[in-house]
């Protein structure tokens, strides 16, 4: 799963996941009127300081402010005609991107809320395919701040919100103002206690379940699955994007009277050259593919273009839209699959005589998928080098072991911030996995420059964190400039 959030004013993710204490604003500061004409950067800096911990699990505070904003509770109107929520360890971002592309291709107005962002906070909210403007976000933050300070007669007084909670409420408020025909919400850390889960969905999706964020979710996959399944709603369709989810997901669905629709059981995909749908291919080979829904309504879409994103997620997105009542047209689906784009997910960029692949994968499950995609490429792509930088609370050994069969050597870099893992620490892990370390660098930009100056031609994979890809994209932008 992606890291939860970004700190303001930096080109990549920065919200600290650890529930560490930090100096909060004083009581007087919490009550004071917010100065007018704050910039977006001012707002983000203020939000980062206003709550004593960066993650505060639970929905009571955010639910109360949401009621004051009219987002939930008696008399609240829905934020959109159809609402799809997407949870999971990996694959949420690509699923949201394809849902949005498919919705727009079918003529629906759309809005999405996602986290984290790579370069700009505005990426978190898209309205009809456009990132929210600074002015729109500032207005939303003003509304949220006014609501948390308001005397609503609920006995709660002033309510303190985390950076992520305030940003989520602002995003939901903006979406509600647009009343899109399709609202797509990415659920962050966990699911059950995530701020996004205050919104009741029409369709809930769980992409994958794997270990990540162990400090908050633990290492027991059944417990992690239960947390993810907390986004399910009684009587509403549930889409499982894997047939290997923990049994706790299905058990929770049954407790709500919901029969989940499961990939490879209720819907499948296959390469166009394959004929036997009884044994669907689980590869991600290039070329056209087909999608088939096996349960009511039964339907098949042929000759779909490769979206360049996981086809498991593409198949799940198609099934979710059917469950949400969208009548799929094959021409619209083809257009969406041919044109969907998502930064930082198998994103290829040509610079300095070589191909750079940027992917935010930061756990063994994501690294395994990445390795399978790279293995399918032409052998002439070798040598393949890896620019790797990771946070200290991630499974570096698992990621390196997953990548090692398809790469030749590593250039490791240090990320900034309290959770950073030093390049020297990563180098030790690489060597313990029998890998070759070409250089240890103090930053992603330094590592990229080292590769340009010293490494022979070949593909470069940049991965390990949203931080890593964000800083690499910033470096590439500087190079373009």
From TrEMBL:
Q: Per the record, which residues fall in region Disordered?
A: 1-20
Give yes or no: UniProt keyword Magnesium.
Answer: yes
Q: Which UniProt keywords apply?
A: ATP-binding, Folate biosynthesis, Ligase, Magnesium, Metal-binding, Nucleotide-binding
Which residues are in the Mur ligase central domain? 86-233
Coiled coil residues, start to end: none
Q: Domain of life here?
A: Bacteria
Kindly state which reaction or reactions the protein catalyses.
(6S)-5,6,7,8-tetrahydrofolyl-(gamma-L-Glu)(n) + L-glutamate + ATP = (6S)-5,6,7,8-tetrahydrofolyl-(gamma-L-Glu)(n+1) + ADP + phosphate + H(+); 7,8-dihydropteroate + L-glutamate + ATP = 7,8-dihydrofolate + ADP + phosphate + H(+); 10-formyltetrahydrofolyl-(gamma-L-Glu)(n) + L-glutamate + ATP = 10-formyltetrahydrofolyl-(gamma-L-Glu)(n+1) + ADP + phosphate + H(+); (6R)-5,10-methylenetetrahydrofolyl-(gamma-L-Glu)(n) + L-glutamate + ATP = (6R)-5,10-methylenetetrahydrofolyl-(gamma-L-Glu)(n+1) + ADP + phosphate + H(+)
Q: What does this protein do?
A: Functions in two distinct reactions of the de novo folate biosynthetic pathway. Catalyzes the addition of a glutamate residue to dihydropteroate (7,8-dihydropteroate or H2Pte) to form dihydrofolate (7,8-dihydrofolate monoglutamate or H2Pte-Glu). Also catalyzes successive additions of L-glutamate to tetrahydrofolate or 10-formyltetrahydrofolate or 5,10-methylenetetrahydrofolate, leading to folylpolyglutamate derivatives.
- The identity of this protein, by name, is Dihydrofolate synthase/folylpolyglutamate synthase
Supply the source organism for this entry: Cobetia marina
